[in-house]
Amino acid sequence: MTTVLGIETSCDETAAAVVRRAGPGAPGEILSNVVYSQIDDHAAYGGVVPEIAARAHVEALDSIIARALAEAGTTFGDIDAVAVTAGPGLIGGLMVGVMTAKAICAAKSLPLVAVNHLEGHALTPRLTDGIGFPYLLLLVSGGHTQIVLVRGLGDYARWGTTIDDALGEAFDKTAKLLALPYPGGPAVEREAAKGDPKRFALPRPMKGEDRLDFSFSGLKTAVRREATALAPLTDRDVADLCASFQAAVTDTLADRVERALARYRAEVADGPADFVVAGGVAANAAIRAMLAETCERHGFTLHAPPLNLCSDNAVMIAWAGLEHFDGGETSGLDFAPRSRWPL
Ligand code: KG4
Ligand code: ZN
């Protein structure tokens, strides 16, 4: 039996969780999942302010960890290892999490596992759906947009990435220029549900290109151009712009994903047909529906984590840490947080 405490402070969620499994190959069990969202602290600024985030993590983290242990019915004595997000992310927040994890490890004589935040997102479906390796991953979050071949634990090949904005960032920037609240993704999705996706003919960046990269800044600029031409915007204009933006994004993603599925079939001929979507944008219902349809058409099984495990959380960090710990990998107490840390 392995029980791991996970800590996540890379952006604007202060989170701690306890995850357990009987042994390698056995299913994992989430004993607790505590997330304190700082959204209210940042909403007035229309985005995450790193300095405010770091200070809020300092204030909240100790009690969040205590709650995660209590809700799991555990004490530090039951914990086998402490897993902490060590990057990529905002360096101030990462330092708070890593310092706290190191202090616990030093005081309680526990091993530390430094976890890559992206790997946390990537491995979540192994906990929720029990899938094996390899699989194809679409990671769409506020900071990252990547198509990754997950060959094994710690063995990742990046097949495509964004050449400018991340997808979540494009949602957030579009929301901001339409004066919608932060975070933008859920706000744009809500408006899009009321709007006409055909009213504005927005570009489909990269569509039809062979390489599996993404580009979203031109799309955002096109929304700005339409919005400027129409100003002042009515509620209908905003809803139609959101619907047209979301349709363009979904269409572009579908094209990239189809190409990725074909490449997976060609290069990983005997690999299981498992496709995983992860990251905060995976909460978008229109994108999920498109992925479900695309996967079904190509004979793939879509694995989309439940919404609370798509956005940032510490369960995914505890789980990634547990997989490494069970594989005999731990980190030294001198491990330094890294604001940039590619998968
Ligand atoms: O993975 P995540 O929680 O944090 C990062 O690691 O970035 O992702 C947050 C991003 C934000 O950009 C947010 O606007 C976006 O995910 N997001 C959404 C939705 N919910 C959150 N984007 C589109 N539709 C949504 N429903
Ligand atoms: Zn994330």
Automatic annotation (TrEMBL):
Designated name of the protein: tRNA N6-adenosine threonylcarbamoyltransferase
Keyword field: Acyltransferase, Cytoplasm, Iron, Metal-binding, Transferase, tRNA processing
Catalytic reactions on record: L-threonylcarbamoyladenylate + adenosine(37) in tRNA = N(6)-L-threonylcarbamoyladenosine(37) in tRNA + AMP + H(+)
InterPro entries: ATPase_NBD, Gcp-like_dom, KAE1/TsaD, TsaD
Domain Gcp-like positions: 29-319
GO cellular component terms given for this protein: cytoplasm
Cofactor notes: Binds 1 Fe(2+) ion per subunit.
EC number: 2.3.1.234
Residue numbers binding Fe cation: H117, H121, D312
Main location: cytoplasm
Gene assigned in the entry: tsaD
GO MF annotation list: iron ion binding; tRNA N(6)-L-threonylcarbamoyladenine synthase activity
Organism the protein comes from: Oricola thermophila
CDD domains according to UniProt: ASKHA_NBD_TsaD_bac (cd24133)
Protein location: Cytoplasm
PANTHER family per the UniProt record, alphabetical: TRNA N6-ADENOSINE THREONYLCARBAMOYLTRANSFERASE (PTHR11735), TRNA N6-ADENOSINE THREONYLCARBAMOYLTRANSFERASE, MITOCHONDRIAL (PTHR11735:SF6)
Family membership noted in the UniProt record: Belongs to the KAE1 / TsaD family.
Binding site residues for substrate: L139, V140, S141, G142, G143, D172, G185, E189, N284
Function: Required for the formation of a threonylcarbamoyl group on adenosine at position 37 (t(6)A37) in tRNAs that read codons beginning with adenine. Is involved in the transfer of the threonylcarbamoyl moiety of threonylcarbamoyl-AMP (TC-AMP) to the N6 group of A37, together with TsaE and TsaB. TsaD likely plays a direct catalytic role in this reaction.
HAMAP family: TsaD (MF_01445)
Cofactors: Fe(2+)
Gene Ontology annotations of biological process type: tRNA threonylcarbamoyladenosine modification
